[in-house]
Task: inverse folding
């Protein structure tokens, strides 16, 4: 039995790309110009974020590279713009373009980690609630109900505030990232849990689950190996849309001054610090981080919208 | 019916109890309250006395009950930063937030419904497509970015509207209002649009979808066959039936409007409860955080309860089915 599975496995692996090309999803993707555009923009932002250390003219986290001589320079297309500061500099001489690249990197890392944490938590709780039912189900779903009465941003703020109080104000940037990921994870798990639970309730009465029980598989094995793959479709849609939400939440927390510190600015922190210069005419300090954030979120949202429609069997 | 209302009431109380427990435990997680009150050089004996005074030596259950009792009487403790009772601080800031939320909701409802109806009736026009595109941007953009954009446009570039604060306010008893002065009204415009934009796009999309659905039904076709004017069919028959879900959503969203005012109030330095809360989070002022959390929970729970009860009154089918199951 084992040997034969290993013989069979490599074959579908080799053709995974080919299978994807034949899938309805890919066909729908090729039909939608909007989806292709959104995907291209999202990909571009990801690439910029990954390549930030190599393509940025300056390391914005390194105070040694900042020179006050270069402070508050306008973008290059102005007469007094200075190369290599293509999008100008802020009041400390930090290159706006480099700060945006590094900020993108942070925003995406926090967003992705937030989605992973909330997804893991939500899927786990949803699986357990749906599969076992009874008291556990009631308990988990009541907690979810209570949490749904609050907007996510409020929960994230409270988690952040309480953790800061408990840990004291001496926190380094990495702890701040961990904290913000945790508060995003704790704010967004409900939607996954509800979706997974309702799918599991349908799936668990199907024959394959009964068959699994009959041949003596344990509950965790049935849940993770057999039920989970069948409920993942909607989870991907939620994850895509939640990535945009998580990025917005991080940016909002940083904007409110409870997120990432000024020494390690994400897009939200850049917008908060740049906001001060709006009235003194140095619009580029806030405009470009804002533009990057808006473009990133819009592209991911469009992609999520398309994915939801494409995976919805009723619309096909 | 009464059984249903009672059941919902019990659930609401349970939710408030849970939130109260969370609010209470925040005090315990967030370090020693005595340290927040005394200075560095306070002698140990005095600290112990303060500890005893605050009742921190009592069992946790007793402390929680005392906290709950205080909360029910409207006493939320004393703010660490302002050294004033939290209830007084909240009462002082509440009018600003409620006026802002009211204006934002009115803006969202009127503009959202108008744009939604237009998009449904003139689906193919370019203006409808522009509205839809705007709504997508409105849903995608973070609130604070929209606020900054509006400030840049209308305050910095054009200089038409103020970028922060409430303008001149008039005191009516304990309530301060910005509705009665020109500068107060001008100061309301940008924050209201910022806060209401998300709700507006939501309502617009909802009205559009509902209208398109209703226009396909038989009774609209019948109304056309009766030779009624298009205007009376669209506005008298179709719109009326789309409004029930719209008002439900708007009602349910009222709570999030108040919560989202945290962001709007920070952008515009609007002296409301949200700004107070953000400052509390930044300065780890737990009494204010806990009180705000409880207040928002109470508002949410009351709104949900009212909407649920109204629903059973408006829709007889719901009343029957719950009556049978209860």
Result:
């Amino acid at each position: 039995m084992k040997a034969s599975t290993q013989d069979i496995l490599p074959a579908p692996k080799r053709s995974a790309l080919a299978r994807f090309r034949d899938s309805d999803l890919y066909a729908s993707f090729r039909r939608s110009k909007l989806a292709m555009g959104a995907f291209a923009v999202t990909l571009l932002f990801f690439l910029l974020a990954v390549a930030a250390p190599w393509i940025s003219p300056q390391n914005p986290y390194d105070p040694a590279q900042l020179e006050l001589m270069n402070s508050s320079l306008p973008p290059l297309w102005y007469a007094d713009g200075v190369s290599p500061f293509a999008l100008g500099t802020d009041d400390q001489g930090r290159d706006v373009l480099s700060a945006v690249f590094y900020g993108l990197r942070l925003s995406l890392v926090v967003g992705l980690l937030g989605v992973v944490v909330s997804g893991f938590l939500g899927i786990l709780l949803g699986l357990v609630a749906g599969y076992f039912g009874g008291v556990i189900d009631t308990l988990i779903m009541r907690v979810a109900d209570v949490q749904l009465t609050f907007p996510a941003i409020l929960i994230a703020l409270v988690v952040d505030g309480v953790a800061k109080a408990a840990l004291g104000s001496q926190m380094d940037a990495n702890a701040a990232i961990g904290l913000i990921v945790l508060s995003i994870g704790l704010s967004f798990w409900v939607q996954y849990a509800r979706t997974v639970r309702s799918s599991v309730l349908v799936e668990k009465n199907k024959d394959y689950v009964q068959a699994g029980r009959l041949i003596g598989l344990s509950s965790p094995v049935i849940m993770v190996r057999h039920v989970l793959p069948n409920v993942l479709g909607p989870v991907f849609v939620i994850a895509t849309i939640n990535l945009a939400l998580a990025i917005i939440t991080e940016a909002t927390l940083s904007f409110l001054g409870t997120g990432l510190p000024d020494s390690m600015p994400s897009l939200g922190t850049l917008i908060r610090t740049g906001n001060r210069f709006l009235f003194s005419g140095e619009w580029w300090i806030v405009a470009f981080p804002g533009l990057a954030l808006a473009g990133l979120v819009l592209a991911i949202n469009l992609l999520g919208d398309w994915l939801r429609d494409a995976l919805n069997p009723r619309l096909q | 019916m009464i059984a249903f209302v009672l059941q919902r009431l019990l659930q609401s109380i349970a939710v408030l109890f849970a939130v109260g427990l969370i609010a209470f435990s925040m005090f315990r997680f967030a370090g020693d309250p005595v340290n927040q009150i005394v200075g560095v050089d306070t002698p140990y004996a005095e600290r112990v006395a303060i500890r005893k005074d605050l009742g921190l030596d009592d069992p946790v259950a007793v402390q929680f009950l005392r906290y709950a009792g205080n909360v029910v009487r409207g006493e939320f403790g004393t703010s660490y930063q302002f050294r004033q009772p939290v209830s007084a601080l909240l009462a002082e800031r509440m009018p600003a937030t409620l006026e802002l939320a009211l204006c934002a909701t009115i803006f969202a409802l009127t503009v959202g419904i108008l744009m939604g109806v237009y998009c449904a009736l003139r689906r193919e026009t370019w203006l409808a497509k522009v509205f839809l595109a705007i709504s997508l941007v409105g849903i995608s953009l973070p609130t604070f970015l929209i606020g900054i954009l509006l400030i840049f446009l209308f305050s910095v570039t054009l200089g038409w509207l103020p970028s922060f604060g409430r303008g001149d306010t008039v005191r009516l008893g304990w309530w301060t209002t910005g509705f009665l002065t020109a500068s107060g009204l001008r100061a309301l415009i940008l924050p209201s649009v910022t806060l209401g934009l998300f709700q507006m796009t939501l309502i617009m999309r909802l009205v559009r979808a509902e209208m398109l659905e209703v226009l396909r039904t038989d009774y609209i076709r019948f109304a056309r066959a009766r030779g009624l004017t298009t205007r009376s069919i669209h506005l008298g028959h179709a719109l009326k039936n789309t409004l029930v879900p719209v008002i439900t959503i708007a009602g349910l969203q009222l709570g999030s409007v108040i919560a989202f005012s945290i962001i709007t109030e920070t952008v515009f330095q609007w002296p409301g409860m949200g700004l107070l809360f953000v400052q509390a989070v930044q300065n780890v002022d737990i009494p204010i955080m806990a009180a705000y959390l409880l207040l928002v929970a109470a508002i949410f729970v009351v709104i949900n309860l009212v909407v649920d009860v109204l629903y059973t009154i408006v829709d007889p089918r719901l009343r029957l089915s719950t009556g049978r199951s209860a």
